[in-house]
Design brief:
The chain is α+β, with helices and mostly antiparallel strands and 693 residues long. The chain has four domains: 54-251, no CATH class; 253-456, no CATH class; 463-567, Alpha-Beta Plaits (2-Layer Sandwich), CATH 3.30.70; 584-692, no CATH class. It is built from 28 helices and eight strands. A hairpin with a 4-residue loop joins strand 7 (643-649) and strand 8 (654-659).
Length: 693
């Protein structure tokens, strides 16, 4: 076996181990996908928690409570600042997702470069501010190792800010795959160094461990991110303009503030831990969750709740693994139903993940920290569960860009915690905080499920559905058409369609009336007469999309607009508005009559999911992406993995999959095309009867 054979063998084994989200959506095996994504992440989180506990206890026993409190303040502050930075970077990621459609490499490089410049400035400010805090909290005569450790926490935060920009430059549009060992290596280094050094100089071991593990972690992130940059031919450009201001990214003030606050909201656990721990060495009012019973009063809340902070955040961190999936599903309107389906099943997994992290808290309380009653740990279980559900709702809001709704829940959280803080009776703090979190969860449930129950307004429909939607418009309507030639690159073509969709969002709808001709309408009146949506598409395609027209004067209603479109010969003559087609499931007998060896799957049923499981493993993951592309091309039949496929959309979702047999007979192929065309226009019963004759 030569090197090429070995490479193909390794690639084949890797692909067999990979679990595709799109395949799981079709086969119904979402829990298998959750396990695939979470199995190693949970192990890493558990090992990181062990290191977190070991580091803190070594600092506490070696340097005392003040040094431990300083470390806690810096760690929590680091978590909060990194959350705000992650939120702000969503502005960059969303902008890069838009630029990826046009394949404007220069714009992508300038965008990433400008954010790198901003990250360096922000990192410098964070490093200076963190150093001031460390010097202020720690006395000058304290052990220098404690001060060095505090500085390392600050330096770690500062270094990771530009690294996060570099990572997000690729993560905005694709996952950054890396070998399995890279997930465990930084934590393993910490465990080995601390384990070996605890018998000699524990404090120095902690310092060496944080230096070694962070250096390795940053190198891994940068190395594999840069490798993906090279594969995509992208190089961040930080010298695009002269002058500092010209090199900084242009961030809309409202969007930047909303995104930053949303990122902060995902770190509320850290702020809550500060409120529980109180101000070290003072009598300032703090949340006392241990005052409910006499047996709980000896618990060191400062120590315990800081140590369990990673566990309280555990379920949120586990949900954040699926942030990229929610973003992918959000950007494709026809996958809206799948997005909700994934979310509802993730809610079923959330309490199971929570029990894992709560079990680690039980191990900490019973075997590591002295004097933690099991009843206290049991009383914390509802808080763990409720917080995990809230985190799941929060990460979906963030991934879908609903910052305003997320920020309103953050404000509501602050009000609830303030009401608990006003009550001076600490014996009820645990109960009141749990009740406040339950109230917050109820708000999230109603907020999200109201959004899910609101019917989606599609911006792109098959031609028959588009004609019916236009005819049903009661108010003024302006219509337009534009030609998008087939010879332009596929990504440029997709960018043109996406631009038109974004232009028409909540305003109108578009459809392909042929492979190259696109028609659209927009609700509005003569007040909007200067608006020319087709010109934006022409700009995106550099003029390749041409022969565009758009009415300056609107039609009185949709019926009049349809008559005018037919008169202008944008569409073939219509004998009235086509009636709505039958349910696509009635196409199944006709398809099997034409192709007895074909495969039919109704994706609304469990039987359809079972059918999808019988198909080739390399075929199933490609079906949904191909179906989405067929919607952009208005194609009745598309090629996928060497087979012909007909995805049927019904009520703005993929409803049926018709997989033709290999090498279908041309006459049967044409008969199936005629059947689909007549079905779309509500004429299939007549055509079906003709075929039967």
């Amino acid at each position: 076996m030569n090197d090429i054979d070995r490479w193909f063998d390794r690639t084949g084994r890797r692909e067999q181990r990979t679990v595709s989200l799109y395949a799981c959506l079709l086969t119904g095996k979402m829990f298998g996908y959750f396990w695939y994504r979470l199995r190693y992440a949970l192990v890493v989180d558990g090992a990181t928690f062990v290191v977190h506990v070991a580091e803190f206890l070594i600092i506490l026993t070696s340097l005392g409570g003040l040094a431990a409190f300083t470390v806690m303040i810096l760690r929590v502050g680091s978590l909060i600042v990194s959350g705000a930075w992650w939120g702000l970077l969503e502005v960059m990621r969303e902008r890069l997702r838009g630029l990826s459609l046009t394949r404007d490499r220069d714009a992508v490089e300038r965008e990433i470069g400008s954010w790198l410049v901003l990250s360096v400035l922000a990192a410098t400010a964070v490093a200076v501010a963190g150093a001031v805090v460390a010097l202020w909290l720690l006395p000058a005569d304290d052990d220098p190792m404690g001060l060095l450790y505090a500085f390392l926490v600050v330096i770690e935060l500062a270094l990771r800010m530009p690294v996060r920009v570099l990572h997000s430059g690729m993560y905005a549009t694709r996952r950054i795959y890396r070998p399995l060992w890279t997930l465990f290596a930084p934590t393993a280094v910490q465990i080995v160094v601390i384990g070996a050094g605890v018998f000699f100089y524990p404090t120095a071991a902690v310092v060496i461990a944080i230096i070694a593990s962070n250096a390795l972690s940053i190198w891994i992130t940068v190395h594999f991110a840069l490798r993906l940059y090279r594969l995509n031919g992208v190089s961040p450009n930080v010298r695009a303009s002269r002058g500092l201001r010209a090199r900084l990214p242009k961030i809309p003030i409202r969007q930047g503030i909303d995104a930053t606050i949303a990122g902060l909201g995902l770190r509320l656990d850290a702020i809550a831990v500060l409120a529980i721990a109180g101000i070290y060495g003072t009598s300032t009012r703090s949340f006392d969750l241990t005052a409910g019973f006499e047996a709980w009063r000896d618990i060191d809340a400062f120590q315990f709740f800081y140590l369990v902070l990673p566990l309280l955040r555990g379920a949120y961190e586990a949900t954040a693994v699926f942030y990229f999936d929610f973003v992918r599903l959000r950007r494709i309107p026809a996958l809206r139903e799948y997005r909700m389906w994934v979310f509802h099943r993730l809610l079923l997994v959330t309490p199971v993940v929570t029990l894992y992290f709560w079990a680690l808290a039980v191990v900490l309380g019973l075997f590591v920290l002295p004097g933690i009653p099991f009843m206290f740990l049991l009383a914390l279980l509802p808080l763990f569960v409720v917080r995990s559900f809230i985190g799941t709702y929060q990460i979906r809001l963030f991934a879908e860009g609903r910052f305003h709704a997320l920020n309103l829940t953050i404000v509501f959280t602050g009000v609830l915690f303030a009401l608990v803080w006003i009550d001076v009776n600490p014996a009820s703090d645990l109960l009141e905080i749990t009740a406040a979190m339950i109230a917050l969860l109820i708000v999230h449930i109603n907020l999200q499920h109201f959004e899910d129950r609101t019917p989606a307004v599609p911006t792109q429909l098959p031609l028959g559905d588009w004609i019916r939607a236009l005819a049903a418009e009661p108010g003024p309507v302006r219509a337009g058409t534009i030609t998008i030639p087939e010879w332009i690159p596929q990504r440029q073509r997709a960018a043109a369609v996406d631009t038109m969709r974004n232009t028409l969002t909540d305003r109108g709808c578009l459809a392909f009336c042929s492979a190259t001709s696109l028609v659209f309408y927009e609700r509005g009146s003569a007040v909007d007469g200067d608006r020319q949506p087709h010109l934006e598409v022409q700009t995106v395609t550099g003029g390749a999309a041409h022969r565009g027209r758009f009415w300056r004067e609107p039609a009185a209603n949709g019926r009049d607009a349809l008559d005018r479109i037919v008169t202008d010969r944008w569409l073939k003559p219509l004998a009235g508005v086509p009636r709505a087609p039958q349910s696509p499931k009635f196409l199944s007998p006709e398809f099997l009559d034409i192709f007895p060896a074909g495969v039919v799957a109704d994706l609304d049923t469990r039987a359809g999911a079972r059918v999808m499981r019988t198909l080739d493993a390399d075929l199933v993951p490609a079906i949904l992406p191909t179906a989405m592309r067929s919607l952009d091309d208005d194609a009745l039949v598309v090629s996928v993995a060497g087979r012909w496929l007909s995805p049927v959309f019904h009520q703005n979702k993929v409803r049926m999959i018709f997989l033709l047999p290999p090498d279908p007979d041309p006459a049967h192929f044409q008969r199936w095309l005629r059947t689909l065309k007549s079905w779309r226009l509500g004429q299939w019963e007549r055509e079906g009867a003709d075929h039967g004759a």
